[in-house]
Structure prediction request, 270 residues.
Amino acid sequence: MLFGIREDIASVYKRDPAARHFFEVLTNYPGLHAIWFHRISHRLWRWRFKWLARFISTLARWLTGVEIHPGATIGRRFFIDHGMGVVIGETAEIGDDCTLYHGVTLGGTSWKPGKRHPTLKNGVVIGAGAKVLGPITVHENGRIGSNSVVIKNVPAGATMVGIPGRLVTPTRENNNLNKQQRAKLDAMAEKFGFDAYAVSPDNPDPVATAIGRLLDHVNIMDERMAELCRAVNQLGGDVCTELTPIELKEFLADSTNGTEAINANENNEQ
Prediction:
């Protein structure tokens, strides 16, 4: 139990840049509290203390705003960000390293007994307000966009958005990228977090996708320019002084300075 709590808290650091220290996460993340309540209620449910299990589940809902049926099965390092309004049904199954944002529903479409709720495989991410309904499967590393309504299976590595949910990108396995390109994009996505700037090709945001393609183009042009410069230098030339790399913090600093300047001008005008 204690190992599971430490593992859950460690997973928060990886997925939430607002997390600052251990005690803050331990005391101020209702999504984690809901998961810990569920582990107790789920064990009681399996021991057939079903009324007590439901009572603890209801108590957890009052305290956290997250409703998880004690019959649901949840894997390791599950993270509910913000938490409010999340509903997880009785026969839902959630794998390891999954992430749900606020307002997500893993619900059913039938009153018949048996498997009625979704199954999430490892690494699934579901955006805020999305509804995943019925005994469907979201396969490994599948993603569902905010406010989507999904009623059919999601392939591994694919992204679905809209009402009803539709596939907006091919799976990672079908992308026209070689292993080296795929590894480079994954490394950039890991650096910036959650596919910022669409460095991953399965980002459904068209503006972010356009920026991501521009970044890809710039990287390719830099590589080809470097090859050309090396060839010229080998022939006796002296060209192409190495460019200074651009760091993300430089953009952030420029953005902050620009915002401060705008605010100062507005204050002077007033």
Notes: The chain has seven helices and 15 strands. The longest strand covers residues 166-169. The CA atoms of residues 118 and 135 lie 5 Å apart.
